[in-house]
Amino acid sequence: MASALTFCLLLVAALADSVFSTQRTLRSWVNLGCGEPCRERNVTTLYLRADGPNDTLHYLWDFIGTPSVLLAVTPPSVYLNITWDDYLARRENSVVFLENSVVFSPSYSFGVIINKIIEFNDVNDTALIDTADVTNMNVLHSEYFNWRLVSLLQNSEFVSLDMEGNSYHDTAKNISRYGSIKLSLRGFCTVDHSDMVPHMLHTENSTQVDIILDHIQTNQTFARSRFAIELLAVGGGDPDILMFVDPKKSLDDEHTPGIFEVVEVRTPPYREQDGALNAGSYLQWRPVSYISASRDVTSSTETVQYPPKQVFNYTSIKNSMLYCYYGDEIANLLLQKIMVSLGSKGDGFYKKTNYLTWTFIIGYGTPPEERFSSLVIMIISIGLGLPLLIMVITGLYLCIRRMPKRHGNAYLNR
């Protein structure tokens, strides 16, 4: 009985996985068609195509100026084109999509800029950046790091790009810092959990971004430095509605021990879509940061997310790849900032280990929901089925023992 129950549950899980999984084929190129100008400037722009049966997701991961990610949805016949001289000069319309050599407008597009790393002096150990005043804050602009390619893995099922930014120098304020920011981007072809802790659940329509702040030099006057990361979200969605923040509880911490929550930030629908929340993009992360490279439970701390805010001054975006695509049209698009601070009260601040991580997903469509894995289902079914089987066997045994006995001697006495 227990084995039958286990088999049925595993079969249901397998069928569910097959229903929710769609395979895409990945193809990627670094500095596609650029050649010598990119080699001379040591720049990195990765173009990733994720071809599905009905559409193609285009991703552009860019580290020229402010690091940014663009995703766009088109038919499979459409391809991306970069005019490199204009692109390197950060001019608008230097990134376009073409079909039969004619400019094509994607059915949906969305972009994220890793805009600022904000250091704040947490004098009261609240781990909240919104309680710090301006005198206790320093802003590091990501465009002032010197970005270099560390490693690249490309195949039809998985694409991985590791970048490192160091030698920070703010040319406007003449501020320099030692230390590095490491960015790891991952592209996927199907639904699964990432092999990188905190093992985020991704779909075939998503990119994972992992950020590490490694021995970033802190302000000498700050005794209790913490860091926060500011993202800018640009593109699809009603520009007059703030993005939706939805922290979700989970019963399962199998993949990220001790963390039973996933934070989702979804773009608002376009005005004509009457509240259809599944038509846009989302950001998703677990509210956990790690203070060592081991990334285990003992080296974990928390993150704090803050309500999205609209941005009305888009001049800072002009040094990003998203300006090359959207141009001045950004003024009419959704443009909002998201702030996440790293650390929790009593964790020793950044100086304890000089190491912090944050991992998030950028995806298109409906955010995936955590489900119990086949292993967990098997364990639960055995845990429930085995006691049930023992109870049934015990009940049958007691019933048999209490049944009236047949006296064989009665036949011998006849």
From TrEMBL:
Keywords: Glycoprotein, Lysosome, Membrane, Signal, Transmembrane, Transmembrane helix
Signal peptide: 1-16
Membrane topology: Single-pass type I membrane protein
Transmembrane segments: 375-400
Pfam family, one: NCU-G1
Keyword Manganese in record: no
Keyword presence, Glycoprotein: yes
Any Gene Ontology CC annotation: lysosomal membrane
Cellular compartments annotated: Lysosome membrane
InterPro entries: NCU-G1
Subunit structure: Interacts (via lumenal domain) with lysosomal protein MFSD1; the interaction starts while both proteins are still in the endoplasmic reticulum and is required for stabilization of MFSD1 in lysosomes but has no direct effect on its targeting to lysosomes or transporter activity.
Task of the protein: Required to protect lysosomal transporter MFSD1 from lysosomal proteolysis and for MFSD1 lysosomal localization.
PANTHER family hit by this protein: GLYCOSYLATED LYSOSOMAL MEMBRANE PROTEIN (PTHR31981:SF1)
Family membership: Belongs to the GLMP family.
Name of this protein: Lysosomal protein NCU-G1
Species of provenance: Atta cephalotes (Leafcutter ant)
